[in-house]
Amino acid sequence: MKKFAVSVIVALLMSAGLVAASTATASAAPYPPPFETNCNATSQGAVNRLERPRLRVNIRPRGTNRAPRGTVRVNYVRRDGGQRRSYSRDYNGQPTVYSFPALRQPGRYYVVIRFNPPRGSVFKSCTDSANQFVRNRPRS
After folding, report:
1. Which secondary-structure segment (H or E) carries 108?
2. What is the pLDDT along the chain (140 residues), one digit of tens a residue?
3. Which fold has domain 37-135?
4. Can you give the pTM of this predicted structure?
5. 83: closest CA among 108, 66, 112?
6. Domain coordinates of the chain in residue numbers?
């Protein structure tokens, strides 16, 4: 009987020791860090009042050769105040030229782009700006 009691106690102590030794949590590999992106917006410079302005957008990733895809949000803000326009376009990973409706008020515009990757993407968002000048009449 003593041997049985001792063997039960030894078995309990051994199982408690195994449980105590195996309390370390399992660790999975961490998620890969998101890749930085570099936005580059280039405007035409100057357009006539009734012309459609064009904007060249190029988004390059840093640290990978994968092409970032997502949405580009473009904001035209008139520097003298008054007019603010916002547009959204899809970006497919290659340098793209977008055209927008004509800006009817002449003056200087500040163009701000923001790249928004889709949810779950490995790319970070980025912003850039450019200047757009709208002339009142065509050049002579």
Report:
1. strand 107-116
2. 777 777 878 877 777 665 555 556 666 667 777 899 999 999 998 999 889 999 999 999 998 889 999 999 999 999 988 789 999 999 999 999 999 999 888 999 999 999 999 998 999 999 999 999 999 876 55
3. Immunoglobulin-like (2.60.40)
4. 0.72
5. 108
6. 37-135
